[in-house]
From TrEMBL:
InterPro entries: GP_PDE_dom, PLC-like_Pdiesterase_TIM-brl
CDD domains named in the record: GDPD_cytoplasmic_ScUgpQ2_like (cd08561)
Protein name, entry field: Glycerophosphodiester phosphodiesterase
Pfam families: GDPD (PF03009)
Boundaries of every GP-PDE domain copy: 19-253
Organism whose genome encodes this protein: Ornithinibacter aureus
Top-level taxonomic group: Bacteria
Amino acid sequence: MRASDFAYLDAPTPVALAHRGGAAYGPNRGVENTMAAFRRAVEMGYRYLETDVHATKDGQLVAFHDTVLDRVSDVSGAVEDLEYDALREVRIGGTEPIPLLGELFEAFPGVRVNIDIKADGALEPTVREVLAHDALDRVCIGSFSPRRLRAARSALGPGVATAAGQVGTALMRLTPAVVSRLLHTPAPVLQIPGQHRVAGRTITLVTPGLVRRAHALGKHVHVWFHSWSREDATEMHRLLDLGVDGIVTDHIDVLRDVLAERGHPLTAPT
């Protein structure tokens, strides 16, 4: 499938995606993946948000990155072990509630959402929420589980945009066969880190050749960053010079300034 076949991808490139609302942006530090963080990104001009999703014990779908709550709140335990009535009392950073995915759809009707399905239990609720909010054209579904991604594509139909991005030991050697398998998927978006570490080695995934081959197949290349990788203006300019179609960033202010320098400013809502 080609990117041009999907309404989700009909915006001019390069596409700017706010990862967890922009987790490294000063006002969002400590309150990532909350409505406050997402709202700041939208107010800055972002029209694409990225979030992970998990399902509670009673099947409510929340926009939340971690499997457990310990890292970002003073509550311990796993999302999947809690009823939503208990989870809704949790405060990220001591102040912000964990949003339902449906709240993002409703609060930001002009915004598109890149959804990473983080657990098997979140698959069916994701399908349910996308359909309930008539959001098929507003979402791109990704997952590190190819099985989960295939199931989402099957349930939502060929009209939903999906992102292929599994990386692992198979990519330790970027042979032609491996690159071909990476490119020839039904997904219109290749969403991968610029670099990846496998068995103690750092390999470069996003190369001029990979971008050219992806574009020849009509696919987008969207790049995200590991916590250990360089994510500054210089690296963003380098990736954009390679021709990547989108950048998924925690540093939403940096990417905003980079795009403005390149003549592609974000447009904040009036």
